[in-house]
Amino acid sequence: DVKVTQSSRYLVKRTGEKVFLECVQDMDHENMFWYRQDPGLGLRLIYFSYDVKMKEKGDIPEGYSVSREKKERFSLILESASTNQTSMYLCASSPSGAGGSYEQYFGPGTRLTVT
Amino acid sequence: AQSVTQLGSHVSVSEGALVLLRCNYSSSVPPYLFWYVQYPNQGLQLLLKYTSAATLVKGINGFEAEFKKSETSFHLTKPSAHMSDAAEYFCAVSFYGGSQGNLIFGKGTKLSVKP
After folding, report:
1. Rounded mean pLDDT of chain B?
2. A65: alpha, beta or left, given left = phi > 0 and alpha = psi -120 to 50?
3. What is the rounded CA–CA span in Å between residue B32 and residue B52?
4. What is the pLDDT of residue A2?
5. Extended strands (E) in B15-115
6. What are the strands of the beta sheet with B56-58, ordered from one edge?
7. Per-residue pLDDT tens for B54-106?
8. Interface test with B, best of A32, A49, A104, A113 (most B CBs within 10 A)
């Protein structure tokens, strides 16, 4: 089974702190994604990566950065956390290649509260 | 541009009743379509997917969905609701034939099941 793990299920940080959210997948997937989920807004894509050291902005990248130094690991960084970044953060991975169905596999999520 | 619309942010049914969750998509190319389920404080789990084979797709937990090109719809159904079906459901579409694995998600429909 594909497994996507996230470093924390619940996290409480203070305004202005630098926050790292880690995601690891064990299926050698090329693609990895970070979403945030807020009530009534569904999932919104923050950043994604198609390969090691590659990253692309999603729909809401402001206030976030990412790092992908190894294929299995994709980190989301909040440079200076703010209260409007309180949210559920979901990581996902998928295989790439023509003919793929692009099914994404999700981690359990990190519920981040910024106070 | 591709988009996904889920009609109804909340749907309530009685236990044993039919479940119908609506999803319409907009796509200029043949899509791949997905339904995901999210239980409270968990990540998303794939229920079923359409990848241009059979138009009636069967998934896990007794759910199925029918791809109707003429109606640009991919509604999710289950003949008899169970209390354990209470969750949030997301419809998603991806780009067919591309090399990248982005999904576009609907805003979600929260299903309540009354005893």
Report:
1. 90
2. beta
3. 7
4. 67
5. 19-26, 31-38, 44-50, 56-58, 64-68, 73-78, 87-95, 103-105, 109-114
6. B3-7, B19-26, B73-78, B64-68, B56-58
7. 889 999 999 999 999 889 999 999 999 999 999 999 999 886 544 456 888 99
8. A104
